[in-house]
């Protein structure tokens, strides 16, 4: 079995005192916080290879890498603790590498590790969090999105999923008809960026790689797919994506472009993988309070048995000249005015859902109950 995860974890190297070579400005967000990228992926996909690539490359960025050894039971409550069992420290010592990166291993408390980083008061361009023992990145995304202590210091930038191009279809078919899905489904469903690794091992037969991309887009049509061999990618593809920042200048336009593409995709006769993407649209203005109640019924109460993992959209709100963006990860969501509608734009509500047991007609019909009648 091909596996890049057999590589040894990143090794600490000799520390050099001279860091004057990099005087570039950090890639901080507008509010001064540092972006955090969650890296996840199926066993053998190449997560360790990607981390090693980052830690050994002369990229001129000061990146903190947190190797996360959380267990499957991790949740917001567990992650908020400051001490391990018996009061012992749960964050290994930070090690500085020759290229300016710093690295540590976290046993339990992500929050504690991030607080240590903030306390260092050193310039950071970015933070990478590799999920070594966690199938589902949603709990970590929730912590980064909700924790008040961290809100001003760090900000969730994106979720990056590494997938094995050669073995992906086998991994997805393992429990295809089961009510529980293999890790690969969830990791793809939550991704903002998918690194399709080991593309060199795919048959040169015409259309073979496209079939794999179609399978990925069936599950999550909102993610950007990046091809790679041994995860040798341009870091700009996974850093400073600002996937959760509704205030980013290009956020709304980028989201609208993805929604347009997704609408055409969801109208096709797709192979139902159990977890899939659908898109609904509505031209009438909607009542914001009604939208919130409608969304909470779906996300919190799992109306009609639907289980939504991710949700993104643009909304045309009653008595507002501003385009509102909607984003949700599991039960957490926000709706934020992003910018004014442009005069030439077709003002319309578009919402994409990624999840299990989704009912497109049911979602469309119930959303119409949020519209405003003139």
From TrEMBL:
Catalyzed chemical reaction(s): GTP + H2O = GDP + phosphate + H(+)
Keyword Ribonucleoprotein: no
Keyword GTP-binding listed: yes
Domain CobW C-terminal: 275-371
SMART domains documented for this protein: CobW_C
GO cellular component, as recorded: cytoplasm
Region (Disordered): 1-32
InterPro entries registered for this protein in UniProt: CobW-likC_sf, CobW-like_C, CobW/HypB/UreG_nucleotide-bd, P-loop_NTPase, Zinc-reg_GTPase_activator
Annotated keywords: Chaperone, GTP-binding, Hydrolase, Nucleotide-binding, Zinc
Biased composition range(s): Basic and acidic residues: 14-31
Any one Gene Ontology molecular-function term assigned to this protein's record: GTP binding
Pfam families: cobW, CobW_C
Family label: Belongs to the SIMIBI class G3E GTPase family. ZNG1 subfamily.
Protein name stated in the entry: CobW C-terminal domain-containing protein
Protein's organism: Turnera subulata
Species classification: Eukaryota, Viridiplantae, Streptophyta, Embryophyta, Tracheophyta
